[in-house]
Structures are given as C-alpha cells and as structure tokens.
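Notebook, student rotation project (T.W.).
Task set for the rotation: take a protein with a known small-molecule partner, predict the structure of the complex, and write up what can be learned from the model alone. Partner molecule chosen: adenosine-5'-diphosphate. Sequence and SMILES entered below by T.W., checked by me.
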Amino acid sequence: MDDTAIKIENLTFFYPSEEEGQAPEDVLSGVDLTVEKGSFTAILGHNGSGKSTLARHLNALLLPKGGSVTVFGMDTRDEELTLEIRRRVGMVFQNPDNQIVSNVVEEDVAFAPENLGIPTPEIRTRVDEALKTVGMYEFRTHAPHLLSGGQKQRIAIAGVLAMRPKCVVFDEPTAMLDPQGRRDVMRIIGRMKKELGTTVILITHHMEEAAMADRVVVMSDGQIAMDGAPGEVFTRVEELEALGLTVPDTVKLMWELRQKGVDVPLDTLDVEECAKALAEHFKKK
Ligand SMILES: Nc1ncnc2c1ncn2[C@@H]1O[C@H](COP(=O)(O)OP(=O)(O)O)[C@@H](O)[C@H]1O
Ligand SMILES: [Mg+2]
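Predicted structure of the complex:
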C-alpha cells in the first residue's frame, strides 16, 4: 500500500509579471516535499515566503510551472482529475467571512458537497455529522453572519468536512480569531487527525500550534529551509531567528538558560513539560 498523500517534486511557480516585458520572478523554486497519509504537518515561514502559493497547489487551485504535484496518486495537471482532487483535498482559509456563502448555517455547510456532485440524500447526513464534529449542530438554522469569528470558522471547517476529505489544508485558520476561537479550531484539527485519520497541513504563525504537529516545515523565499520534528526544528533557535521566526516561549527560555551554562533540555514544547524539566534540573542540584 502506498502511504504517500502528497508528493511534490521540484515544484516551480511564478505569477505573471505585472510589468510588461519583465520576466516574472519565481515564488516557489525547486520545492520537494512528501507528506505521509494521516500525518499532521505544520508549515511556517515569513510573510511572502510562498506558503499560500504552495497550499493552493495542493488542490489544483494553482498548477505547477515546473515540476509536479501529485495528491493521492493524482497529478494536479490532469484536468480530468480536478473534481476528484478537490473532493479529496479541502482548504480552509484565514478569513471565515470570505468562506460563508449562504444565510443559513446548514445550507452553507451543504454548499461545497453540492458543488462537488455528492448525491443529495447523502448530503443531509454528512452536513449533520460535520456540524456535530465542529460542535455547531445546535446553530444549524442560524444566520452565519451573526456568529463569532471562531464559530464562522468552525462552519467553514464543517463545509470541508462534509466532503469527507482525505486531506485538509488550513491556511492560517486562526489568524483572525480570539484565543477561544483559536483553541476550538485547534481542537477540531487535532480530532480530525486522530479520529478521522485526515492528513492535515497547517500553515500558521503560532509556534504553539506548529508544536502540535508531527512535523514542521519552514519555508523561506520559495524554498524549504528546514524540515523535521517540532522538537528538532524548534531547537535550532538561531537559524529560525535568522529566518524571521520566533521560537516558542518555552524553547526560548530553555535556550537562554543554556547560553548561561544551565544544562536543561531544549525540546520542551509546552509549559507543563518545560516546568517539569526545570524542576527536575534544580532538584538534582
Ligand atoms: N495572486 C498573486 N499575484 C501576484 N503575486 C502574488 C500573488 N499571490 C502572492 N503573490 C506573491 O508571491 C509571493 C508569495 O506569496 P504567498 O504565497 O502569499 O506567501 P505567504 O503565504 O508565505 O505569505 C509574495 O511575494 C507575493 O507578493
Ligand atoms: Mg499566506
């Protein structure tokens, strides 16, 4: 059995140049990335590093200028496969307002599966199930525009879930949400991976969110600069800072202690772990 969900090989992409006669600049150059089925990958990188452009290649919203993108064995350049690819790979974007298309929550959730040709009787079941998964079932007859940002984002996620995708790409889904909304969305993402076996790609600016992933990929200037487990990537403090990224506060604290000669581990990614490691260290003294 093939365990590969996404295979990106030597991907190059550029947007058309705005000035006539000017050669367009590569926004992605030589990107290679293989993502395993059922895994959770976080993508970090400064603004303009090409994260969203890469994300849009994963469900054929953009097509490679060079190299290839294969999702679940399907080449995104094959137009006959576009519909099937979009059923398998869902996308959730930053601004929930731009993703709402209907005045009633359950109609909104039904929109994507309807568009992608899912049979009508099947849609009803899927919509209810998706709304329950995101904890918004009781709001099914409400008007989406009266909901909070976090609730709207959960509705957008339900719309994607109703397609029963094998993979979901989240492009900074919590960027516009308050802390409660962020936690709710992250909890749903965690459940999708654990309970539904969904392959998750999460683009984020929040280090604590990236720390929840199995793997962290760091982009810089259209290329992959770092790739590894969170505990590995986040300990490369100076490299990350050189790429304009901050490390999680817990890692930063441990790193500064180490600079001062205190022998503590660097890979404590949550506060609890960090506190335990510190207590352990000072107990030994
Ligand atoms: N639709 C577009 N047309 C032209 N240039 C674009 C477009 N979208 C993004 N870009 C440019 O491509 C580069 C990468 O952008 P993007 O993929 O959005 O990066 P990120 O998501 O990491 O911030 C930036 O220089 C950006 O200005
Ligand atoms: Mg972006």
